[in-house]
Every structure is written in structure tokens, then in C-alpha cells.
Amino acid sequence: MITLGIESSCDETSVAIIEDGRKILANVIATQIPIHQKFGGVVPEIASRKHIINIMPVLDEALDKAQLKLKDIGQIAVAYGPGLVGALLVGVSAAKALAFSLGVPLLAVNHLEGHIFANFLSHRQLEPPFVSLVVSGGHTALVDMKGYNSFSMIGQTRDDAAGEAFDKVARLLGLPYPGGPQIDKLARQGNPEAIDFPRALMKDNNYEFSFSGLKSAVINYIHNAGQKNISINKADVAASFQKTVIDILVCKTIMAARSTGMKTIVLAGGVAANSQLEERLTEKCRQNDIDFYFPSKILCTDNAAMIACRGYYQSLTGKFADMNLNAVPYLEL
Ligand code: KG4
Ligand code: ZN
Q1: Does the ipTM surpass 0.90?
Q2: For atom 10 of ligand 1, which residue has the closest CA?
Q3: Which of 4, 165, 241, 333 has the highest CB neighbour number within 10 Å of its CB?
């Protein structure tokens, strides 16, 4: 089965073609990061317009890379939410037009589920059940994956997402968008023990997260230093902030694996690309005798291969969409 995936929920226009769920034949990603960088974040209106310009050339490039023609496509999977409504609509409209004209089934994929499924593309042997920590620009959640099509939310953030906190703190430090990779890099030169930022909810016996207080603590730290005319060490702020986020994520994820009795943890979403997070979870899982998986770097951030993979497994249950499919910006897991 050849599945074509389309992703346009934020600032990447991506089309991928995969075979039998797990083999990537093409995964073309046109990123808009340089365009949004000068605004310090994604401008939704510009993102939608760029998706419209990019979608057909990206589709053509994916077909070329896979050495396939449109007639070879067996089904179309598209991310229909969560995300920016105008951006999502470009992918959804393209997917509906393709599915209708080719007479093939259409699959409506939840973008967050796609992030988890990126791991099946990176690890051929990986199978559910497992606990997944999904950490992206818009979400922070712990998911109980009982099967390919059976999962439930264990807990999520009450306010900001982890990636959002990385982006906001990076902005405070004068680093360009997206902030996560910049903090990751700068933190390597800093002392993670230099500043003791608050670890909200970490010791609470629940699976919820809260990162807005941490963001405020960083603002206050920078503000107070400014008032006293003390220059801050940006690398120390980055390293201490990053360690705080990772301490919380690692603590709650291990707790979730213990309470569900799962012996496998799977990391997903853009923040999964963080080198320290990968390192710390690898170490903690080894100590706790838990198998640990994370996607290859290119599959951590938004891409259409993960959407196609999720779509493939969804197709096995016969859950197809029709031409009434619409974008759902606040879609839950
Ligand atoms: O999953 P994703 O590509 O888009 C959403 O679905 O939101 O995640 C993007 C987020 C951004 O907040 C970005 O700063 C963060 O992932 N990110 C990182 C790293 N690479 C990307 N955060 C921390 N460390 C990284 N190396
Ligand atoms: Zn994403």
C-alpha cells in the first residue's frame, strides 16, 4: 500500500510517500522558518499564503523522489488539526482534491498522533504498548499507547507547552526563532546549576505540567539583574532553564511508566530533538530497566512521513474521511 501524507499545520509544508506503513520513499519538507524569523515567531497569514505557493512543487518533488506517478498512490493522509486554521486548510483542501480526483480513500490524521508515529518510521521493531511523552511547540502530554489505534491521555500541560517555553525564553535572551535549537546549543556552554528556577508540579502526584511560572521566573531573573545593573550570563540562564524543563519532563515520564507498568518509553514532537532531553531520558530509562526510543532528528519536527504512517495504521481500522473534512485547529488527542 502506497500512502501519500500531507502536513501543513504550522510553518512546514511537507508531502511524503511511504510504503506499507513504515518505509519512507520520499519526505519533502519546505520550511518557512527563515521567513518567520524576522517576526520572532510564526505569522499565521503569511504561513497560509506560503503553504499555497509551496504545496504543488513539494508534491511534485515527493513524487519525483519516490519515482512514482499520482496513479500509484493508494490513499491520502492529511493532518487536519491541531494547528493554525488557515495553514491546515491548505493541506486539507489539497488532500481532498487529490483523493477525489484519483478516486482513493482519504484519512484525517491528528497531528499529535503523527508525532508519536514518527517513532515507527525510525524504529522498525517498535510496537505498542508504551508510554509516549509528546513535547512540541503547542503541546506537552503523556499518552498511554495501548495499541496502534487505542490510546488515552495520561496528563498534559495546564498552560504553556514545553516548546513554547523554549521559544519564549530564547526570545527573552535575544535568540532567533525557533528558540529550542538555539537554547539547546547555548546551554552547552552554561552551568545548569547556576540558577535555581521553580519546578512547578514536579513533586505532585499527578501527570500535569505547568511551564508558565517558569517563563515568569526567567523574566523576573532578567528584569532584576537589569535593575541592579548586573549583566546576566545568557548561557547559564539557557542551561539552568533547560535543566529545569528536562527535570520535570523526565520525572513525570518515569512516574507515568511506573504507574502504568509500561516497560517502554517513546519520545515525540519537536522538543524530542533536544540533545539533553534525549541523554537524560536514555540514562534514566537505563537505570529503571525501561526501553527508550526517540525519532531521528528530521522526524522529530513537523513532517508528512509521520502523518502518512499514522494514516496507514488508521486505514487498517477502516476509519476514512469524506469530502466534508474540515480543519480542526483545537483538535485534542
Ligand atoms: O513538533 P514541532 O515541529 O511543531 C509543533 O507541532 O509545535 O515542534 C516545534 C517546537 C518549537 O517550539 C521548537 O523550539 C522546539 O520544537 N524544538 C526544540 C528543539 N528543536 C525544536 N526544543 C528544544 N530543543 C531542540 N533541540
Ligand atoms: Zn508538530
Answers
A1: yes
A2: 137
A3: 4
